[in-house]
Amino acid sequence: MDRGKIARLMAIAVQLQPTLPEASIVKLATGPFANLLTVAAKYGLMGASTALGDTSMAQLELFFEQGSASGVEMTQNEFSLGIAHLADTALSESDIPFIDKLKLQHKIHTYVTGSQSYNGNEVLDFDSPATTPLFTTSGFDPIDVALGEGMPQEVNMILGKPACGKSTVGISIAISWRKNVGPVTFLQSELPHSAMRMKIDQQTNGAKIWVAGEDKLVYGHRNIEQELVRLCEEGDQDRLIIIDSVTGMCGDGSNPANRDKYTNLMMLLSAAKNSNRAVLAFTHIKRGVTDLADIEDVAGSAFVERLSGSMIQARKGEYMSRDGRGEVKLDVIKNRYGALRPTLTFMYDFLTGEYDITDDGSLPDEFI
Fold it and tell me: E strands, 264-324, where?
């Protein structure tokens, strides 16, 4: 148990009297300090001293001073994310039954995203300027053109069948974003690092484009969830978050446990996009879909549909050469900020990431 983190949470509890999760989550996160944190949030320092007969005022003051020594501004977000991080860590180390872990994870993430909200936590004047642009040109033209004005500050979904090139396209977009906009966090739940390393080296040809400490590759379900929680609090208004893939984290969405995972992950992605530039999430379509997909054909469709700003289906075309070049078709099936354009087609080198748009999906002049 990290006493320094507990002291910080206790100091925030005294100062802000923040919203607490249910008692089981507080107990999971803070162990023997759960009662202290609860009464501090409810009664403040003086009230806690009265409520905790076995703890002196001097001891509480010392603990409070330790937690507030940094002088950093205290917020509800810091408190809720701190509780969630400690609870997630404790949960990963526990040996309770799997189904009970799922239930607790749902409660933790509901608490965090409830305090974060899907669209931010601000009270602004009507004429307040936006600090983050709504649209960003990623530099990867097929996506920018398909969406009309670039990538919006949303959870943007790219969906397709297995082996349609989603991971490779994700790397191409990450490279373009790093060159044109800013940092990238790539959350990888399917490919091992050796495969990612090979694909990245093929597309960069050894060029040094990444910035140490800014651009990150994250592997493993627990690390991905913890990184998303961190990015909710410590975001970067130029950062692109890529996750490959949602289905790799959550399964096919065919049972209640999977659907709970989709709910939790989509809530985290939606909260993370508020303090960053955009989220790009790769996922799969349901089995049995042979051609153009509909919104309801996405794995975990109910929550994915609701919280996605845009959804693009990626399909391989008929042409594929032996040297790794092939035709890719993009169909926009949801666009919160624009029209659903006709199919965009581009030739794509699945080794180097080079592309050439052969049909941008523009409507003929007589239809404009």
Answer: 278-284, 310-320
Contact 184, 172 (CB under 8 A): no
- Segments of the chain assigned E as strands: 135-136, 151-152, 155-160, 184-188, 216-219, 240-244, 278-284, 310-320, 325-335, 344-349, 355-359
Residue carrying the six token digits 């992950």: 265
The sheet that has 355-359: what strands, in order across it? Answer: 216-219, 184-188, 240-244, 278-284, 155-160, 310-320, 325-335, 344-349, 355-359
Residues 6+ apart with CB under 8 A from 293: 159, 285, 313, 331, 333
Query: How do residues 219-241 score in pLDDT, each as one tens digit?
Result: 998 899 889 888 887 889 999 99
Q: Can you tell me the distance from the alpha carbon of 295 to that of 302, in angstroms, rounded to the nearest whole number?
A: 9
CA angle 138, 116, 311 (to 5 degrees): 40
Residue 71 is predicted with a pLDDT of 77
The residue whose two tokens read 């985290």 is: 268
The Cα-based distances of 192 to 51, 196, 198 in angstroms read 52, 7, 10
CB-based contact 30:37 (threshold 8 Å)? yes
In this prediction the pTM is 0.71
Query: Residue 269 and residue 229: Cα distance in Å, rounded?
Result: 9
Q: Could you read off the pLDDT of 227-283 as tens digits, one per residue?
A: 988 888 788 999 999 999 899 998 877 777 777 788 778 888 988 898 899 999 999
Burial of 128 (C-beta count, 10 Å sphere; 0-12/13-18/19+): exposed
Q: Over the stretch 277-306, which tens digit does the pLDDT of each residue have?
A: 999 999 988 877 777 777 777 776 677 888
Q: Which two tokens stand for residue 355?
A: 């592309």
Distance (Å, whole) CA 94 – CA 303: 29
Mean pLDDT of the chain: 86
Q: How far apart are CA 244 and CA 217, in angstroms?
A: 11
Which amino acid type is present at position 306? R
